[in-house]
Write a sequence for this structure.
């Protein structure tokens, strides 16, 4: 970082300050020579630098400077490995500095509410802890290399359908427990240079002008000190957005918004201090501007992309040890994706890769391989003839590897999928091949989960590659041949049916609104809570070796925290990596909780026969729920089970602890229910004593039944109907006593 940030950029004329808060074109802020402020370029990420070539007044999705396409977030999520995320962030930072980009837009940490979201390939997981830990690691890596990050898209941006207008209608507890924690972790642990606001509305208010989100939560609660930048074209009302806490509008709008800001200040509708506040934040981005470096080692970064990709693929099924491929086997490779790999998603994050490996070429290095395309990516050609050719090869093979998946046109930024199915031609191909081949392995490439139904039981092994970046072809070959051990775990559930998914009835919404009716029961949280069967659960993944856990110990720390230790042993014959998953389960408290929730994890590498001890600290948030009455995190007193799982449905060990938790003394008002009054720890006993003293003999026996009938009645109405029983001054005294007790 070589630029000098002016000591007081707010001394600029109002017109220049307003201009600084909007792009001069699609990708950069205007330079202000009088204040020593250089232009700041912000370009797309998050899995590679997309620096546009040519006219910066256009979006330029096609032409960009060559850069390494690292594994996208869908793959990194399946790695369950913060080191992978951090190394990708660091490498992106190196390339960005070489290309002359001070801020790269990423990572995306939005939750995979539905498997249909067209942009799921840019997001990590259906779980906020996993997404937040990986996102924070990416930011640390990227900013450690001197390039600003932009965590996105804040907030509740979980679909592409009507993304620029739809209102995500989400209750407070769901926001706090599911859709905000990943952002909170990235902000509080990694302090990204910027936060990007989303296109959509949140409960009827555009995210770009949502004061509660951008100021009260992001800055006042979480302590964010960077700049809030709009998603490109997300600003609806420039002045309202500025007041709410949005600092930089992108892209530029040829000065129209700047004029509105100036006019609002001149007329007294907008305090110039609001402008100055944002000017300081945007000016601070100049600290990331520097002279481009001498370049980057493209070969080394490609090797890194390949290495990291091997830890991201998930081995879902491996019956009879079909994998790894044995030396000397006759191998048939079927499927166009084997030679024309699908390795990234479509839209703004599309990287002009420096090179691309394909699995077919990589497999030919170690095995004698026959190949048939089996299908075309665009659905053209004679499907029956292509299938027959593939079946002919499979009939004579010891094992047939079918590369299947979705083409880029099937999923991209800008639209959502309408189903989970593979193309019909591919399903028919898999079934036909499996019917004649001695063994059949299916390798999947897609930006989100696809249905395995209709063919899963016909094949011997399934390797879910998702999208692995430009080194993915070689990485898949390494995994298929056993040069690398599969260590990925599912970061999202693979359902049996789309109709089983929690958001099915409410995705993508209607008439401008999408109701998050499933609440906190997102992804595995609902599947395990209602005991709904799935094809493969969150956290599932196989290896070529085996692992056991033992010596689990859980100790309480104070009233609301715990420590966890256990031993992991590689009981197999080769080295491998294992993901330890720690879940918490409880029924304590006044709200319905998911059957279990991921609360910690780590990935360990072990040689054959090796053991290691791992330790976790579970803080109060690991046991807490968001209390909508207290507007705070609350740990319910009572039993909490700490569970070790191979997945969200496979618990291998657990210990139960009793937490003192938080004793919540509720505030009482005349709108509080009769039941809340009588059950209150301070006011309740006094109220009952006074009430019974005025009632006829035998009223005590009627008390419980009475509460069942009128317990939900507001005290104001109850007091009016039974005024003689509870004097108004007594109610005032008890309300005061309840306030003191809080």
């Amino acid at each position: 970082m070589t630029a000098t940030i002016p000591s007081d950029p707010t001394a600029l004329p109002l017109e220049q300050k307003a201009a600084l808060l909007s792009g001069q074109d699609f990708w950069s802020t205007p330079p202000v020579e009088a204040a020593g402020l250089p232009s700041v370029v912000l370009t797309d990420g998050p899995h590679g630098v997309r620096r546009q070539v040519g006219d910066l007044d256009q979006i330029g999705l096609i032409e960009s400077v060559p850069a390494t396409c690292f594994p996208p977030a869908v793959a990194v999520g399946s790695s369950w490995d913060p080191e992978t995320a951090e190394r990708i962030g660091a490498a992106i930072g190196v390339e960005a500095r070489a290309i002359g980009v001070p801020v790269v837009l990423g990572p995306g940490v939005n939750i995979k509410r539905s498997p249909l979201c067209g942009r799921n390939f840019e997001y990590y997981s259906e779980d906020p802890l996993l997404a937040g830990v990986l996102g924070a690691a990416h930011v640390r890596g990227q900013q450690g290399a001197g390039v600003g990050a932009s965590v996105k898209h804040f907030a509740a941006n979980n679909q592409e359908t009507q993304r620029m207008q739809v209102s995500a209608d989400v209750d407070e507890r769901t926001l706090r427990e599911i859709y905000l924690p990943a952002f909170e972790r990235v902000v509080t642990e990694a302090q990204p240079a910027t936060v990007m606001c989303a296109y959509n509305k949140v409960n009827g208010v555009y995210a770009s002008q949502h004061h509660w989100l951008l100021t009260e939560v992001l800055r006042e609660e979480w302590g964010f000190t960077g700049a809030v930048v709009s998603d490109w074209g997300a600003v609806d009302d420039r002045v309202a957005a500025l007041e709410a806490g949005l600092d930089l509008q992108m892209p530029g709008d040829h000065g129209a918004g700047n004029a509105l800001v100036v006019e609002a200040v001149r007329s007294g509708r907008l305090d110039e201090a609001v402008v100055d506040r944002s000017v300081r934040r945007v000016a601070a981005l100049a600290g990331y501007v520097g002279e481009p470096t001498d370049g980057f080692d493209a070969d080394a970064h490609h090797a890194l992309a390949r290495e990291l990709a091997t830890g991201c693929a998930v081995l879902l099924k491996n019956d009879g040890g079909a994998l790894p491929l044995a030396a000397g086997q006759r191998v048939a490779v079927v499927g166009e994706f084997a030679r024309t790999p699908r390795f990234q998603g479509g839209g703004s994050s599309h990287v002009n890769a420096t090179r691309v490996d394909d699995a077919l070429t990589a497999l030919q290095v170690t095995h004698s391989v026959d190949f048939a395309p089996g299908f075309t990516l665009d659905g053209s050609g004679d499907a029956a003839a292509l299938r027959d050719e593939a079946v002919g090869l499979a009939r004579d093979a010891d094992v047939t590897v079918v590369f299947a998946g979705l083409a880029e046109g099937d999923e991209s930024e800008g639209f959502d999928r309408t189903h989970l199915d593979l193309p019909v031609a591919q399903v028919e191909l898999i079934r036909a091949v499996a019917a004649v081949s001695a063994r059949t392995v299916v390798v999947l490439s897609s930006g989100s989960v696809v249905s395995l139904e209709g063919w899963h039981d016909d094949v011997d092994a399934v390797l879910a590659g998702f999208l692995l970046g430009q080194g993915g072809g070689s990485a898949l070959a390494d995994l298929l041949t056993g040069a690398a051990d599969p260590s990925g775990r599912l970061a999202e559930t693979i359902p049996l049916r789309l109709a089983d998914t929690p958001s099915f009835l409410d995705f993508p919404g209607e008439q401008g609104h999408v109701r998050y009716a499933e609440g906190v029961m997102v992804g595995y949280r609902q599947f395990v809570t209602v005991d709904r069967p799935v094809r493969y659960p969150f956290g599932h993944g196989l290896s070529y070796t085996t692992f056991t856990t033992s010596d689990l110990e859980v100790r309480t720390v104070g009233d609301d925290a715990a420590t966890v230790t256990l031993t992991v042993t590689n009981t197999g014959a080769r080295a491998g990596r294992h993901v330890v998953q720690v879940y918490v389960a409880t029924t304590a408290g006044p709200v319905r909780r998911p059957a279990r929730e991921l609360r910690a994890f780590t990935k360990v590498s072990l040689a054959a026969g090796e053991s290691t001890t791992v330790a976790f600290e579970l803080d109060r948030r690991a046991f807490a729920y968001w209390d909508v009455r207290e507007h705070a995190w609350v740990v319910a007193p009572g039993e909490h089970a700490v569970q070790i799982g191979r997945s969200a449905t496979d618990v291998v060990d657990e210990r139960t602890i009793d937490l003192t938790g938080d004793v919540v003394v509720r505030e009482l008002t005349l709108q509080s229910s009769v039941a809340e009054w009588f059950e209150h720890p301070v006011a309740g006993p006094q109220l009952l004593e006074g009430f019974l003293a005025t009632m006829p003999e035998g009223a005590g026996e009627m008390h419980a039944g009475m509460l069942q009938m009128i317990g939900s009645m507001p005290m104001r109405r109850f007091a009016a109907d039974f005024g003689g029983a509870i004097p108004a001054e007594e109610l005032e005294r008890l309300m005061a006593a309840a306030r003191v007790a809080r």
